[in-house]
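Section 3.1: Structural characterization of target chains.
Under the original work plan, the team committed to producing a structural model for every single-chain target entering the pipeline before any wet-lab resources were allocated. The record below documents one such target. The sequence was received from the expression subgroup and is listed exactly as submitted; it comprises 178 residues.
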Amino acid sequence: MAKRLFLLHIGPDAAEVPAMRDALALGRIAVPDADPEVFDHAGIEIRRTHKAEGLKRKQVEGAWAMVCRRAHKAKSDCFVSMPAFFDATSEQAALALDGLAGFKVVLVVTSGFAVPPPAAWLSLVKADRVHVLPDNLPDEMLAAQVARIALIEEEARLDKRLAKISRRRKQVNKRLAA
């Protein structure tokens, strides 16, 4: 069974995900069902900035795990916007990716082309799964681009499967001819 996609949006600016739900649904992409506060706490938890935010660790602990569990329950490709992850260190990025075991993580960075994507994430996510988009995209355009990326990934998965089936068919034909 193919792994489901987890489209992780990081960027200096947050995306208005509720406004994007309809456009994401066209690409069969779900958004994990959680309060906006949970997403904020997940960013604080992973970056360990709870003291700077005036929170106790207990208040933010487990927020990212909750987002990951909700994504697994969605049973489809998922999209999450985590602008706080943009400044994460490589250890923090690795911690965030650990919760996404079982997903094929695709990184969507909206830092524009003037600012390079964060090196901490580039070292952990395969280069062909990193997509850099212009900054200041309207939410509808970002949703359309995310849906396009999901469809490109689906096409690549189907092409790979088709090539595997073609090889298998050739082997069967050779055995039948013998």
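The chain has one domain: 4-177.
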